[in-house]
Design goal:
The complex is a heterodimer of chains A (896) and B (115). Chain A folds into 4 domains: 371 residues, Sodium/glucose cotransporter, CATH 1.20.1730.10; 74 residues, no CATH class; 105 residues, Helix Hairpins (Orthogonal Bundle); 162 residues, Histidine kinase-like ATPase, C-terminal domain (Heat Shock Protein 90). Helix content of chain A is 68%, strand content 5%. In chain A, helix 19 packs parallel to helix 22. With 115 residues, chain B is an all-alpha fold. Chain B has a domain of 66 residues. The longest helix of chain B is centred in the C-terminal third of the chain and has 26 residues. Chain B is flat. The two termini of chain B are 34 Å apart. Classes of the chains: A mainly alpha (896), B mainly alpha (115). Chains A and B meet through helix 4, helix 10, helix 11 and helix 13 of A and helix 1 and helix 3 of B.
Chain lengths: 896, 115
């Protein structure tokens, strides 16, 4: 068949893939059709695991080592059937933490450490480059097969460059079209699903042709297997177990597998379908490998490359169409792997290496715009994609492209598997620390490079035959194929054992011994307990179901009317009257701002994020929420304090008001009293003076009436004097006549004046204690004493009134004070009245016996205040008790 | 005492050693008896967890008999391996279908740590 026809069909096929990717991308932008997110598309996209290595290499592998090739598929089968244990958690963590790659996951889990991100990225790039070279090699080799068969032999390695260039173009076109927050690429995933079908159909077609076309059915085929050189199964137990483990680790750790398994996953339920459908796909892919190998060995000339049996067998049988289908299958396997790997690696390189460097330079340079970053990220990704493919091409050219395909694949697997301890430890063990992960990765990486990767370049490579045989610098225990002097193992198993073993040991040991930082511990809880605080939502793609949830949330916070108005406005702007608006990023931003007005920016962001992205709250968000809560708390405690103050003030005002009201009542009572008091003497003065004016009275009557008029006038004068006294005293116009005085004499004067002997009040005194000298205004003090004694005389209601006058001394706030207590044996003063007896016009009873105007105690208080003391009521002494307190000028007392 | 201490009932008695302290299980939190339906769902989850272990044993089983007997063994190996493979796929499909079936309305069942 013509080589040009083959190239033409290939180009058509590639064009068809472009179309598929383009259409899918456009449909996705308009709103996700159901089939784009179906579990089958997801399962088929997982088939990037089956690369050209599988497509061509498995047959070669089987021809060389029997059934061992099956381990490469059995490992992933075990992982997929155990999805409930590991993958489910991995996918949940990936969704809630917005993970973009395996480097991102490990860096995120260990406290967002960029050093770890860089390390895993380097590991991935170094581990994947040979694999990309492998794909280029397989495409070139298969092209060469056709070229030879059609007699066209002017082909060269330039083909690989063309292939690499074309792949770079496709990847850049569809892998970096946009910067989706979820890093999902619908176009690419759809194209890969189509390729998955093509390679499965191609391999099945070749297989069916071999079993039912060349052989006579299943029974005949089994007989041929028994008859072939493959009849014996050269099982190496260590390799069987080791490779099963390795392939299981690889499906978790390979960057491209992580991309399709975790990053492109839009719904956890897809994992359930994939758990049986992907193993089924793998089974079908490997079902006909042994028959093809057996038939190839049987029919093709000895020495043909078994890696190409899938192509050469149909060609040699003259089935050009079938061979072309097989070629397309191989092309599909190679391209899908390269595209996804390039996307995954470019995401890692740009996120963990380019962006941090750029941001650091930018910080020195100055401010930056948000739009800038998008452009920089996209450019970085595009350059990374081209760079990764260039690396693959260079590796292909340098390695000469001669090695058996399977060997390169396994070396690559072992390299990326070094991330397994950090990955699984991070998922399930909260005690795993950043330093532990770092130590494990470094040790694993170094051991892998020393024992497997570097020796793979052959004797001409960095590790020469002498080092291989005797160790570096003659150190035998460091021989790459026999570490610590333990030789004889299969090189791959040897490398796997030491690198993964010591990697795990270092990871566990260092984790146990070190202490994680706060962010690390927070992330560890987020990741390990991911099921505790997230719900397995059906991926929140932006659909119309979500608008309802958003509206419900907005109603709860903004109120129904406002929220509905907001949504109606938006729907009208979008030209969708009467419907719910389409959720766009702009609209989400607007809703968030509206909500922020009510609940604070951070909370609003978290809430909208929860609905829109289905992603978890970031640490920064939480901190902002905490800040806001703190501010609200402070504000409310301030309010509380103020309201307490207000309550206290209000209480004081209420008390004052009560006092005022009471005083006002007292004043009214006093006014009527004083008018009565004034009128009574005035009435008698008037009537007696009228009697005198009319004359005709006997002289003794005249004298008596004049006496009465005089007495009443005196009473009036006394009343007016009292009032005047108080007025003067309150205005501080009084001047004191300070001088030495004896307390006993002062009391004598007061008693003589207020209660002369025989007045009915019996007075008890202790003269010895009264013998004290004072410096004071004697007359004023006597006035106070008179008042107190007269009060006792007037108001004491005991049948035999008595008054005790006691003199004492006590410590006051300003030195010693002299106290003079006047205690009678009456019924005392009621508690509620004690407050007001010292007020002006206060009088507790209106017994006419009182005769005073209710100013006495007010005057006393003013006088005592002037003298530097006070007068107060003494509760608890049986009767009414007043205490006069005077400062005791010690010097004056001693001087006397 | 340090902040990392368990909150309740964990005051170290004098002379108490680390080995005397049992692993603290939040026993109050975990219901002892489950409804029959919920119990079945728990066992389904157990099955999902056990599946890869059983699978691994089956995959490693040829290590015990390959190379022991007489005669060509590739044929037997092919039949055995593809046989268990198909079996695993069938069981996984069954488990996955039942695990991802929608719960009957009104039976919220979020936690999977309850036995």
């Amino acid at each position: 068949m013509s080589f040009n026809l083959l190239v033409g069909v290939s180009l058509l096929y590639v064009g068809f893939l472009f179309l598929v990717a383009f259409l899918a991308e456009r449909r996705a932008q308009r709103g996700m059709p159901r089939w784009l997110r179906s579990p089958m598309v997801y399962t088929l996209s997982l088939s990037v695991y089956c690369t050209a290595w599988t497509f061509y290499g498995a047959v070669g592998y089987a021809a060389r080592s029997g059934l061992e090739y099956l381990t490469i598929y059995l490992g992933p089968t075990l992982v997929l059937t155990g999805w409930w244990l590991v993958l489910r958690k991995l996918v949940r963590v990936g969704r809630t933490q917005r993970i973009t790659s395996i480097a991102d996951l490990i860096s995120n889990r260990y406290g967002k450490s960029n050093a770890l991100g860089v390390l895993v990225t380097l590991l991935a790039v170094i581990g994947t480059t040979p694999y990309i070279a492998l794909q280029l090699q397989s495409v070139t080799l298969s092209l060469e097969v056709f070229a030879q068969s059609s007699g066209d032999v002017e082909l060269s390695a330039r083909n690989a460059l063309w292939v690499a260039g074309g792949l770079a173009l496709f990847t850049i076109l569809f892998g970096t079209r946009n910067l989706d927050a979820n890093e999902r690429h619908h176009g690419v995933v759809t194209a890969i699903a189509v390729e998955a079908v093509v390679k499965l159909v191609a391999l099945l077609a070749v297989g069916i042709f071999v079993v039912w076309g060349l052989a006579g059915g299943v029974g005949d085929m089994l007989a041929r297997i028994d008859a072939s050189s493959m009849a014996d199964w050269p099982l190496v137990p260590s390799r069987w177990a080791g490779l099963t483990f390795l392939s299981a680790a690889a499906i978790l750790c390979l960057p491209r597998m992580f991309q399709v398994l975790v990053v492109e996953n839009s719904d956890e339920a897809h994992l359930a379908t994939a758990s049986w459908a992907f193993p089924l796909y793998l089974l079908l892919m490997s079902l006909f490998v042994v028959p093809i190998a057996v038939m190839g060995l049987e029919r093709l000339p000895a020495g043909s490359n078994p890696d190409l049996f899938v192509l050469t067998l149909p060609l040699s049988e003259g089935r050009g169409g079938l061979a072309m289908l097989a070629f397309l299958g191989g092309l599909s396997s190679a391209t899908s792997m390269v595209i996804v790997a390039a996307i995954a690696l470019s995401t890692m390189v740009s996120n963990h290496i380019v962006m941090p460097l750029w941001l650091r330079r930018q910080q020195v340079g100055g401010a930056m715009m948000a739009g800038d970053v998008r452009a920089v990220v996209l450019t970085a990704r595009r350059i990374s994609i081209a760079g990764v493919l260039l690396l693959g091409y260079l590796y292909y050219r340098l390695s000469g492209g001669s090695e058996a395909l399977a060997a390169i694949g396994l070396i690559s697997f072992a390299g990326v598997a070094q991330a397994l301890p950090a990955l699984l430890g991070g998922l399930f063990w909260r005690g795993a620390t950043r330093k532990g992960a770092m130590a494990g990765l470094v040790i694993g990486f170094v051991l892998w490079a020393w024992t497997l990767f570097l020796p793979s370049f052959g004797p001409g490579g960095p590790i020469g035959a002498t080092v291989l045989a005797e160790g570096p610098l003659g150190l035998e225990w460091l021989r790459p194929r026999a570490l610590f002097g333990i030789g004889g193992m299969d090189p791959l198993v040897h490398s796997l054992f030491w690198s993964i073993g010591l990697n795990t040991l270092a990871f566990l040991g260092v984790s146990l011994a070190t202490f994680p930082g706060p962010l690390e511990r927070l992330q560890s809880a987020q990741v390990v307990n991911v099921f505790a605080h997230t719900v397995g939502a059906r991926g929140w793609a932006r659909g119309s179901a979500e608008a309802e949830d958003l509206l419900m949330m907005a109603q709860r916070i903004l109120g129904a009317q406002e929220a509905q108005a907001l949504f109606r406005r938006e729907a009208e702007d979008q030209g969708r009257q009467g419907q719910l608006p389409v959720i766009t990023a702009d609209f989400l931003g607007r809703v968030e701002r509206e909500l922020a007005g009510s609940v604070g920016a951070a909370t609003a962001h978290a809430m909208v994020g929860q609905l829109a992205g289905g992603s978890s709250v970031l640490v920064e968000d939480l901190m902002r929420v905490a800040d806001e809560a703190q501010q609200i708390l402070e504000y409310s405690s301030q309010l509380e304090q103020k309201s307490d103050e207000l309550a206290r003030t209000a209480g004081q005002l209420r008390d004052a008001n009560e006092k005022l009201t009471q005083l006002s009542i007292q004043k009214d009572a006093f006014l009527s009293q004083i008018s009565h008091e004034l009128r009574t003497p005035m009435t008698s003065i008037r009537s007696f003076s009228e009697l005198l004016r009319d004359g005709g009275l006997p002289p003794e009557d005249q004298a008596r009436f004049a006496g009465i008029i005089h007495d009443e006038a005196q009473r009036l004068t006394r009343l007016l004097n009292d009032l005047l006294d108080l007025g003067v005293m309150e205005n501080a116009q009084v001047s004191l006549n300070l001088g030495p005085a004896r307390l006993g004499d002062l009391i004598d004067r007061a008693v003589a004046s207020a209660a002369p002997a025989g007045a009915g009040l019996k007075i008890h005194r202790t003269p010895a204690r009264e013998a004290r000298e004072l410096v004071t205004d004697g007359d004023r003090l006597v006035q106070v004493f008179i008042n107190l004694i007269a009060n006792a005389a007037k108001y004491c209601d005991a049948p035999a009134p008595e008054l005790r006058i006691e003199v004492g001394e006590e410590a006051g706030p300003e030195g010693h004070e002299l106290t003079v207590d006047f205690i009678d044996n009456g019924s005392g003063i009621a508690e509620r009245s004690r407050e007001i007896i010292f007020e002006k016009f206060a009088r507790l009873t209106d017994t006419s016996a009182a005769g005073g105007a209710g100013l006495g105690l007010a005057i006393c208080r003013e006088i005592m205040a002037r003298l530097g003391g006070e007068v107060s009521y003494l509760p608890g002494h049986g009767g009414a008790a007043f205490r006069a307190r005077l400062p005791l000028a010690r010097r004056a007392g001693q001087a006397a | 005492m340090s902040a990392g201490e368990p909150p309740r009932g964990a005051q170290a008695a004098p002379g108490q050693r680390l080995i005397d302290i049992a692993d603290s299980v939040d026993a109050e939190d975990i219901p002892l008896f489950l409804a029959r339906q919920t119990y079945r769902r728990r066992r389904l989850m157990d099955a999902a967890r056990l599946l890869p272990v059983v699978g691994l044993c089956l995959v490693l089983f040829p290590l015990l008999w390959i190379g022991q007997g007489e005669g060509p063994q590739t044929r037997g190996g092919v039949i055995y391996l593809f046989g268990i493979w198909a079996l695993l796929i069938a069981v996984a499909g069954l488990v996955a279908a039942r695990l991802s079936a929608p719960l009957p309305p009104g039976t919220g069942d979020e936690r999977d740590d309850v036995v």
